[in-house]
Amino acid sequence: MQKRNVKNSGIEFILDNNNSYGDFASLLNDLHIAKHDWYSLDIGKTGHLFVTVNYKNPNAKEIEYECLLCNDVIYDKYKPSFLDDFQFYLQQLPKEAFYLIFGFLIFLNISMFSIKESFQKH
Predict the structure, then answer these.
(1) Residue 68 in contact with residue 76, Cβ under 8 Å?
(2) Nearest-CA neighbor of 36 among 79, 2, 7, 85?
(3) Could you report the per-residue pLDDT of 51-96, keeping only the tens digit for each?
């Protein structure tokens, strides 16, 4: 069927209550062996298996596309910057370390205020 390439053609396998799951699986195995991937199953009304032909138009022209990635330079090595390294190491820290860093920054801020006040008095 596929070699003849006839448009709107195919085979209908009638499956009813007399068929078993093994019959259905056998049909699918036969389609796989024949390397025929175009089939459909009408579950809603008839329960029949339709094997259709993938029609290839012999008069069709192949469309040529512009090469979008031609002459591009793709680097496969990535060298992280200092900021990337710093962010990576910050993500590796446990949650308790952030409490220590935040506390240190608060005490640093308080000490800067006290230094500023001592210089303003004189």
Answers:
(1) no
(2) 2
(3) 888 878 878 788 887 887 787 777 778 888 999 999 999 999 999 9
